[in-house]
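Marked as duplicate of an earlier ticket. Keeping the data here for the record.
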Amino acid sequence: MNENADGNRKIESCGTMNAEMFCAAGHAMVDWIADYLENAERYPVLAQIEPGEVRASLANEIPEQGETWNRIWKDFEKQIMPGVTHWQSPNFFGYFPANVSYPSILGEFLSAGLGVNGMLWSTSPAATELETHVLDLLVDAMGLPSFFKGAGVIQDTASSASLCAILCGREQALEWNGNESGLSGESATAVYVSDQAHSSIEKGAKIAGIGREYVRVIESDEVCAMNAEMLEQVIREDTAKGILPAIVNATLGTTSSLAVDPLRAIGEVCRRYGVWFHVDGAMAGSALICPEYQALADGLEFADSYCFNPHKWLLTNFDCDVMYVRRPERLVRTLSIMPEYLRAKQADDVINYRDWHVPLGRRFRALKLWFVLRSFGLNGLRSHIREHVRLAELFAKLVRADGRFELISCRLNLVCFRVKGDDAMNDNLLQRINDAGRIFITHTKIGGRYVLRFCPAQMNTQERHVRSAWEEILRHVSDQV
């Protein structure tokens, strides 16, 4: 620490980096990121290391004196990069995508530099108002119900959105209206999901104090969609036992197979019994940017809440989940706590997003989403979605043409298939493919059978990558079929 001409103490730059060094390092990193994204396919998709290998390479103590950036960066390349699984590789066909794009990265970078905490309108009016505005634009672009305008919030992930929905449903079922006594002495409440629903719903029920015992799993039908008639039967049985139905979670694009639950039929059941209706569109929701896929959301007008992840298929880097709530005041009533130190002099009608999710603090996530929407435009985003659907249909055609395989389903950008054989044969094939490192695919179980999943949805995935992936699969299957 030193003193300036006025005798005031000045804190020296953190570590060994000053503004000039930051600029140099930043320019070099931008170049490195651009080169990485343009050439990500040169890396093995899965990290080729053993458990504990990364940590064993790291220093065992924090240095007493700050180190130079050059040394830190060299260690990143030497110690960290070998342990990275390359989600941005065009040969990454597993799980669902975690897309990035250059405009999105710039938005993330700028958000980090601004260091905004947008917990209240007054702590950054632009962060609040941009978020509301961008999410309203998406309502129109995706053909969502108009009552979602002014009722959107960016969560980190769909898991957090689902938890908020569960909390709202629980409070609605118990008719708390501000009751501060907690769950002690209250009636049991239940959560209803299909056997294809995401695991975050069950986890959210545990966090909300509902418990796994009261998570009702409804069997799916032959196309892996929730059976609405069975749902109503289970709700009637619970009601007769004095168990309060709290929330039904329907899925617009399940994780296993991208199956879509019958939203309209489920919504009508929820309306009859006064149950909160949440729709999880984490993956497939992005497809609604294309008019031809908006029919997938038929019945969404019954929803009390809805979410989808731009960080999966809409070119906005992780994390960014968009959640809409039919009646935001119910979400605010469920989550709002107002200590004196958070009271601010501001207009009564402004939004304080801290009351719309579990954390108090919040990042300026709307910036990167805004950059993406403006940079690509609707035509660019639609082309992105449509191309991945075309690539999935191409892969499905290749599967159909080979008698050694059976096609289980092809929905949007996800193909589910398997070798004609037992589960052990399919599991062995998956391990052989992934161990080779050239491509990465994952599996699920549908109808009790082991099924392989192929999802072509990365930013730079092209037809040549899909055809090459099929050849790689054939290379491994030829030895065992």
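See parent ticket for discussion. Residues 21 and 27 are 10 Å apart (CA to CA).
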